[in-house]
Amino acid sequence: MALGKDYATQECSIARALEIIGERWTLLVIRDALYGVRRYNDFLVHLGIPRAVLAARLQALTAEGILEKRRYQQSPPRDEYVITERGIALWPALRSLGLWGRQHYTEIQLRYFRHADCGTELGPYGECPACATVVPVEDVLMEPGPGLDPDPADPVSRALLVPRRLLQPLELPVQPGRV
Ligand SMILES: [Zn+2]
């Protein structure tokens, strides 16, 4: 449901951003896209999201230029959803949000995000405290933490058990019936 449309609300840039990314599931779709998830079925199994909701979110994010729809197979036609620069720019906000959640609501560490060059864990804005630099998203190394299920049921979670850089496309073997 959209936020209020009154003039004062429209002028606030946080309210404007929440019009786009404030719906349930939306930030988790963006999170997965940063992890390298691109395909409908991979989002579906990893998020456990209702199909209709996922389809609506992917469509909305594509319309907003946060994801870009690309055809990766012609016959039968298959599309994937690749995060754009506009979507990648949300990474520091997601990093901050994740740390805030861990500080206030759950101490379980599912993943570490490190500067690939030096191995230092990133600060709350996606910066490397050791190198005193903002780390480009493609240079962020994601590693499993102690709270992550070591034997997950879905293939996307299994693939994400291996340390990998953000944005690196997740490529799973195609199985019969996969969309
Ligand atoms: Zn560093």
From TrEMBL:
- Gene3D superfamilies associated with the record: Winged helix-like DNA-binding domain superfamily/Winged helix DNA-binding domain
Q: Which GO terms describe its molecular function?
A: DNA binding
> Mind telling me which PROSITE patterns this protein's record contains?
HTH_HXLR
Tell me if DNA-binding is a UniProt keyword of this record.
yes
Q: Which UniProt keywords apply?
A: DNA-binding, Transcription, Transcription regulation
Enumerate the InterPro entries for this protein: HTH_HxlR (IPR002577), WH-like_DNA-bd_sf (IPR036388), WH_DNA-bd_sf (IPR036390)
Q: Where is the HTH hxlR-type domain?
A: 12-109
Question: Could you tell me what this protein is called?
Answer: Helix-turn-helix transcriptional regulator
